[in-house]
Specification:
The protein has 13 helices and 39 strands. By secondary structure, the protein is an alpha+beta fold. Helix 10 packs across helix 11.
């Protein structure tokens, strides 16, 4: 453990129990702040030995005044900060291993009400004990949970009225002001403290304050206070990209922390006292893939049977007002929805063509899982032509018809051209896919075809996306003039020198890209990003596995190596996204065939990266890999498919099976393959099937 000498008093910090703690140098007369892996932990028992109040620090100095202000602020809040101990419960939650250490709570009622972070109770403990600052222990009851802002309300029977803190008035919350995070996860008489500033307000879609203090499980559930010891907010893990139970935990001690504002906490507590959980309000409409911070609020899709669907909202509607406020960007509407709870009403004014109409949406706690419908075809792909339209003829040529699919049952054939669906014209494969996605399995739709010189109209009852890849070789994906036979005939030999090295300056990781040589007319490429197990990467072996499929099916292979020799880190998900952006900026990448995959821990990071980047990733391949976190709800514009290969003797088999079952309940298509008893690489036949599965990801 690193030991820190306290300048000015000759003391050296060590360990409390089995925990590391770095004592910040500002405690002894300097403003420089130092963090350990648990944040800046303040032991106020050390302060006396450092000369608090003595002339050694210089009573007139700004540094001394700051330190005195910190001490007084924490001293003021300390009677309202309690330690919480939990007993029993699940060992893992959403793949995250839960410990049994103490956590923190904040008194919000003199009669025994205590607020804390919901994260502290995700493992469903069988018993909860609250230890007051004087050491008194009391059993606690979990009254209710706010699943939107991730808070819980506890109730104890106190021996005497508890100390309720003062909350900072909303008009006195200032960005850039001092912010102090307080927990009671260590010694009961010594709060642990992290000091920073208030970085921003109205974060996480208007629900939270942001701070650069070291926020972690050590202080989740504790208060973020101002320099006067008043409560700015309650510390909770949150994320703008996800809303599952463990969202935001990966940012602990990162300088990015969040707190629910104190003035909102007071209102929430009054609702939770009724004993009913609060859930985020869901409307059931979504916008496009454009940047929602600049994109107009035009509805792209509406979930079937959702509140928005029942209120009459339709694709193409433009939202111009929310309640009494005009809106111009999609992000403004998302924030308005995210602030609300289930049961509350969202009042919209929409433009449909040249008309305006009002729309009242009663938000729901749960939406029926969305399932992508299936027409049953693969489209012929269009060739990229810089500076020219990608497709000269309107409609979608059919490359392949799935046997026994809705399209097959309706009599559609390879070579047909789909020119209309449901009364609307079909421009290209993207517009056909989007039109199908606005429907549900079981819906009947009219499809207009051109077969040679004949015009046909057939009725199709949409089905469900298949989990299995097509059987046998697929016909060419591009119009006549392709080079598939030539590519298959080329030798599959090759070495590591066939890769192009890629680098992102902020990361130590190495990455390599294999792009098959271009032969014949230009095509768009699928992109496979492969994350091997941590450690050295055998690029030659990987190329032997993938080279033939890259050449035959027009795939780019991007291999990324972990920075550490023994693990992948969650922050490397950002690296993968940056590399994705780099490759798509320099190559013609087919957006329907972007795949992330890997073995073991590499597959876990591939899953984490994919669910955080559904705007670009369309499939995940996992080989004996547990899934890191939970996939978000299935949504019409974000098609995501999974290929899971597992062995019976892998240590993570139970976790893999549980994750597959969860994905299927969420209506994601999951293809599962059992590789046998012992972990191994995919063989030649299995690689051929995987390549065929990737080749069929643009199915409609």
């Amino acid at each position: 453990m690193e030991r820190v000498t306290l300048e000015g008093c000759g003391r050296t910090s060590g360990c409390w129990g089995d925990r590391q703690a770095a004592v910040p140098s500002w405690l002894c007369g300097r403003r420089t702040m130092r963090r350990s892996s648990f944040g800046m932990l303040v032991s106020f028992g050390l302060m006396a030995g450092c000369g608090w109040g003595s002339g050694a620090l210089g009573a007139e100095s700004l540094e001394w005044l700051e330190q005195e202000a910190f001490r007084r602020a924490v001293e003021r809040i300390a009677p309202s900060v309690v330690r919480i101990e939990t007993i029993g419960g699940m060992e893992r939650v959403e793949g995250l291993l839960f410990g049994t250490g103490p956590t923190t709570g904040l008194v919000v009622g003199a009669d025994g009400y205590i607020a804390s972070a919901a994260f502290n109770f995700l493992n469903r403990p069988s018993s909860i004990l609250v230890q007051l600052p004087d050491g008194t222990r009391r059993p606690a009851e979990l009254v209710a949970t706010d699943h939107s802002r991730m808070l819980v309300l506890l109730k104890i029977d106190p021996p005497e009225p508890l100390a309720v803190p003062e909350f900072t008035p909303p008009d006195e919350i200032q960005v850039g002001a001092w912010a102090i995070a307080v927990g009671r996860a260590f010694e009961i008489g010594q709060p642990n403290v992290a000091v920073g500033i208030l970085s921003a307000v109205n974060r996480i879609w208007g629900k939270a304050l942001q701070t650069d203090t070291a926020v972690s499980p050590n202080n989740y559930g504790g208060p973020l206070i101002d320099i006067h010891g008043r409560v700015l907010g309650l510390l909770v893990p949150l994320s703008p990209q996800a809303d599952n139970e463990v969202a935001g935990v990966e940012w602990y001690d990162s300088g990015i922390g969040f707190a629910i504002p104190g003035f909102e906490l007071q209102r929430i507590v009054e609702r939770l006292k009724g004993g009913k959980d609060l859930h985020p309000g869901l409307a059931g409409f979504h916008f496009g893939r454009e940047n929602i911070y600049i994109a107009p609020p035009v509805v792209v899709g509406v979930r079937p049977n959702s509140p928005a669907y029942k209120a009459g909202l339709e694709p193409g509607d433009r939202i111009v007002r929310v309640d009494d406020r005009s809106v111009a960007r999609a992000a403004e509407v998302k924030e308005a929805v995210s602030r609300r709870y289930a049961g509350q009403t969202l009042s919209l004014v929409i433009e449909r063509g040249e008309q305006r109409r009002e729309c009242q949406i009663e938000l729901a706690a749960r939406l029926e899982p969305y399932e992508h419908p299936f027409l049953g075809i693969l489209p012929v792909r269009s060739r990229p032509k810089p500076g020219q339209p990608q497709q000269s003829e309107a409609g979608v040529a059919v490359r392949y018809v799935w046997p026994d699919s809705p399209a097959a049952k309706a009599g559609m054939n390879a070579g047909d051209r789909i020119v209309g669906l449901g009364g609307g014209a079909v421009k290209d494969a993207a517009s056909l896919r989007e039109s199908v996605n606005q429907r549900s399995p079981g819906d009947q739709v009219e499809v207009r075809l051109r077969r040679g010189d004949r015009q046909l109209q057939v009725a199709v009852t949409l089905g469900r996306l298949p989990e299995e890849p097509p059987g046998g070789p697929l016909p060419p994906a591009w119009p006549a003039g392709g080079d598939r036979q030539q590519r298959e005939a080329e030798p599959a030999a090759g070495g590591a020198t066939d890769f192009q090295s890629l680098k992102i300056p902020e990361f130590e990781n190495d990455a390599w890209l294999y792009a098959p040589p271009q032969a014949g007319p230009p095509v768009s490429y699928g992109l496979v990003v492969w994350l091997p197990q941590p450690g050295a990467v055998d690029r030659r072996q990987l190329l032997q596995q993938w080279r033939l499929h890259c050449r035959r099916d027009h795939l780019l292979l991007l291999v990324v190596q972990s920075a550490s020799t023994d693990r992948w880190l969650p922050r490397e998900a950002e690296l993968v996204r940056r590399l994705l952006d780099q490759v798509t900026a320099t190559h013609a990448v087919d957006p329907t065939r972007v795949v992330l995959g890997g073995c073991g821990a590499g597959g876990s990071l591939a899953f984490l990266t994919a669910v955080r980047n559904r705007d670009v990733v369309r499939a995940v391949v996992l080989v004996d890999s547990p899934m890191a976190g939970v996939a978000p709800e299935n949504e019409p514009p974000y098609r995501l498919a999974f290929y899971v290969a597992k062995t019976k003797k892998t240590a993570v088999l139970d976790r893999v099976d549980a994750a597959v079952a969860r994905l299927r309940r969420m209506k994601y298509p999951v293809c599962v393959r059992i590789l046998g008893q012992a972990p191994r690489e995919l063989n030649v036949e299995e690689m051929a099937e995987l390549a065929r599965w990737i080749d069929s990801l643009d199915r409609i």
